[in-house]
C-alpha cells in the first residue's frame, strides 16, 4: 500500500522544501510539482520524499483525522 502524508511547507529553496507534520520536519523534493508555485504556508501531499500535489488545510486535517483513527484502532488489543 502506498501512503501520502499531508505536510505544511515551512520554507522553499528552488526545487526543495522544508515541510512539517505532527512535529516532524523533512526535506521534500518539489521536482514533481514544477508546474505549480509552492510557497511557505502551503499544504502538500508527500510520497517517498516528493511533494506530489497541493492540498487545502481542510483536506490535510481530514486526512490526519483518518490516520489518527487508524492508528488508534491498531493500538487497541484484539
What count of helical segments does DSSP give?
A: 1
Largest sheet properties: 5 strands, antiparallel
What is the percent of helical residues?
10-25%
Summed up, the domain count is: 1
Question: How are the strands ordered across the major sheet?
Answer: 3-2-1-4-5
CATH architecture: Roll
Annotated CATH topology: SH3 type barrels
**Overall residue-averaged pLDDT value:** 93
List low-pLDDT spans.
none
Annotation, overall tally of beta strands: 5
Output the CATH class name: Mainly Beta
The first-to-last residue Cα distance is: 23 Å
Radius of gyration: 13 Å
Outline: elongated
Structural class: alpha+beta
Q: Spell the H/E element sequence.
A: EEEEEH
Q: Report strand %.
A: 35-45%
Summarize the structure in words:
With 78 residues, the chain is an alpha+beta fold. It contains one helix and five strands. The protein has one helix spanning 57-75; strands at 5-13, 16-21, 24-29, 43-47, 50-55. Strands 3-2-1-4-5 form a five-stranded antiparallel β-sheet, covered by helices on one side. A hairpin with a 2-residue loop joins strand 1 and strand 2 (16-21). The longest helix has 19 residues, at 57-75.
Amino acid at each position: 500500500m502506498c501512503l501520502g502524508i499531508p505536510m505544511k511547507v515551512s520554507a522553499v529553496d528552488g526545487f526543495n522544501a522544508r515541510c512539517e507534520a505532527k512535529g516532524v520536519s523533512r526535506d521534500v523534493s518539489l521536482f514533481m510539482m514544477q508546474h505549480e508555485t509552492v510557497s511557505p504556508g502551503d499544504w502538500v501531499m508527500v510520497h517517498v520524499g516528493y511533494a506530489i500535489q497541493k492540498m487545502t488545510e481542510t483536506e490535510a486535517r481530514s486526512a490526519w483525522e483518518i490516520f489518527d483513527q487508524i492508528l488508534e484502532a491498531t493500538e487497541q488489543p484484539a
